[in-house]
Fold:
Amino acid sequence: MTTSDLEHLISKRAAARYSSHFSQNTAPAHIKAHPEPLSLGGGMPHYGFFPVESIAVHLTDAPFSDKKLETLKADSKSKNPVIIPKVTDRPDDIIDLKNGLQYSYIQGLKPLLLFLKEFVQKVYPPAYNDWEVVLNNGAGNGLNKVCDLFLDPGDVVLVEEFTFTPFLQSVENCGGIPIPIKLDFQGKGLDYNHLKYELENWEILHPGLPLPKFLYTIPTGQNPTGLTQPLELRKKIYKLAEKFDFGILEDDPYGYLTLPPYKDVKSGKFDVDAPVTVDNFVKELAPSYLTIDTSKRVVRVETFSKVFAPGLRLGYIIANKSFIKAINNYSNISTRSPSGPSQFLVNNVIQHLGGIDGWLEWIIKVRREYIIRRNVMLDALYASDAYKKNLITVIDPDAGMFITVVINYDKSKYTPAEYKQLTSKNLFYKTIENGVAVVHGPNMAFDNLADEHCNFVRLTIASPPDHATITEATNRFTKSVEELFEEIEKT
Amino acid sequence: MTTSDLEHLISKRAAARYSSHFSQNTAPAHIKAHPEPLSLGGGMPHYGFFPVESIAVHLTDAPFSDKKLETLKADSKSKNPVIIPKVTDRPDDIIDLKNGLQYSYIQGLKPLLLFLKEFVQKVYPPAYNDWEVVLNNGAGNGLNKVCDLFLDPGDVVLVEEFTFTPFLQSVENCGGIPIPIKLDFQGKGLDYNHLKYELENWEILHPGLPLPKFLYTIPTGQNPTGLTQPLELRKKIYKLAEKFDFGILEDDPYGYLTLPPYKDVKSGKFDVDAPVTVDNFVKELAPSYLTIDTSKRVVRVETFSKVFAPGLRLGYIIANKSFIKAINNYSNISTRSPSGPSQFLVNNVIQHLGGIDGWLEWIIKVRREYIIRRNVMLDALYASDAYKKNLITVIDPDAGMFITVVINYDKSKYTPAEYKQLTSKNLFYKTIENGVAVVHGPNMAFDNLADEHCNFVRLTIASPPDHATITEATNRFTKSVEELFEEIEKT
Structure:
């Protein structure tokens, strides 16, 4: 175990960057600075040039609250509009228009960074002290920046066999080489034994390739499978990371959407309408890899997309200081700072809700809706003939917005290539006819290695407008499966 | 002249990218699609999950309008808040929260793109038809994306000897090699003769280097010099670009801030309070290189930073279709789409102001304030002893937010290295003591080639809060120059 910042894992490209092209002029001690200096330096338009005087943000009480704005009571604290003034008298908490619409810090605006530092410390405290947090332009941008951080051409990154495949383009863009690691569908995500086997036999299995620079994992509510790694598994994977000296990129967009088991909700053991305390909610979250990160090798990528809104294009990264510095140097030439309006919208709404606790209370409301929706979809799946005839196996997700349904082809009758085709072609046509869009397993697959498992589809509970639509769309899907099997049996 | 999209100028890196990793499944003709399909596909949270119900944006009448919000009359159209609803009934014009807070198109949201297409067509119509526009995360991000578009390692880019130096980091990041071209301080920006000489003697002057891939120029209100290239000069430079087959990156953050000559404003020949029609304003803008771009080699980078607000991190790029496609493929892995809140703020405010004409009317008001400020600063400069004693030469800018002041060192007494030192050290100390921050010429310089010209400072009229502060700060600056010369003469 080391207490360094693992600078040797930083790519040569990232390490070669520096923070600013402008020379830093400083005056020697004998020069007595004027007590009230004025600036004719940087080309920042004074906020008097901005066309906006103030912004009022009207909030909803809860997801899918259908109350019209005019019916809201003026005395309901959380419903009054959040006013974003041109200049605030609470600059430590509130991002005003003066700062929010101005050129600003690469790493993000201070009130939001301060909030995030406290939030991280409360919700998943890293196992070391001098970690840092930086805002970015959403998780997709965050993942790209982490690829840039680690990967020189020819470097290797380990990825889950089914994953958020757009990530692979960022790997390719850095000249990186992705190598897939199996998922354990019956277990809880990443297949530890396969990972260990790969690493211990690296030179034989991947002759000429260097050992991996980092592992990319979605450990909680994995996309697309919905699986969540238990803490014990994370500890074992982390030990491998230390032994073979690679970083861990923890992508966790779904972590706050923890879903209690379907049967517990059905039986009333878990009451969706019972109040949930913030502390209990936090306690039940799957622990981030950061909480066991004694050797500073974890980079956590977060996003406001799933619990606030995706269009913000706002997320954040937590990592050790050296990694964050390298990321900032990349931001400096690529994105610069994230959108000010996105930052003041998120920050000031969170402050209005009451800071950390108020924000977690909103997240609990979002999670409640996902629990209900998950049960609505599972109700429909379990009630279907497709399920009763064992044509499908349903994976009850631990977290997130996806339900994976495995299509039970007779594997003795078909080759992997054949049932891959059955899913992405024959079943696809049935869903077109029946009018339901789903994501077919092969589209989320890394590679051919995945073929033996790619007989599944991913269904989302996030996008339908209401519960009836979830039921109707799920019925269309199971009907498609039933028709597919009728067709298969005929031939 | 060619009518192709000059794909051969696209870097190998950019050309190798593709638009999506997801396989594009399509159904054959005999599959009859359901008339009302539902989606369980993409993981987009329904807008019912967003915590914001609506947003009201309160505008100001004009820059630095000090009217308080509560004094505004409800019947004043442009002062009523701009309401951004959850769902609009005018989706062609208005970006609502349903779309503005959702995952969205890489190139930007449709209402704003439509506006920009019309705006470009009216204000600086390109010389060919099938140009495209794409939104990005501010001009800094735009410049970085254009470097990626053109530059493979070892490729050459021409830059002005004094320039927006952060650009050079984006060049380096692509492995590009910047080569400086002189500015003609007595003329109107880029030194045509030097450019021509460099190109015609390329192999002798730069043995082993390939001919340049593109020229980076700030043709209007050049940063830092404030110089503006006349149309005739642009045409001559464009001819060289065609002859030597390179692209032109036109960076134009200041183009709308056209400044009539100081003396015309002083004499009343130009009346800052006289109404300016939108058509006259447009007619007097320096014409973009796009307007003469018959061979599709110009990439124009624009920003909302100077005429709306920098914190938006929102700008746009205009170029031919092939270039835009390559830029989109890069955005797809790096930034994704720009911030939705930034987009709906800009779009809906512009629509509220009345579209193109209303937006240009706002810009005219911004420009008016810059004209007044420019005159306030020149008043102070011309009234100074430093000016009267010929210690400084003032460049009256044609556009923008900067005034360049040349420090008239006795060039027979000092080497370029010495007066570079006098500016960035001795004068710098004087400004620290007198309490005024300025940008010293050497900080904006590309390189040693610039030394013979770097005896200047850049003053901005953008950031001071009011006119009195401009005067006071300018006086502190001229006092610093006077003290410097007293010191020089003593030694």
User: Anything to note?
Assistant: Confidence is low (pLDDT under 50) at residues 69-76 of chain B. The radius of gyration of chain B is 25 Å. Chain B touches chain A through 117 residues (CB under 8 Å).
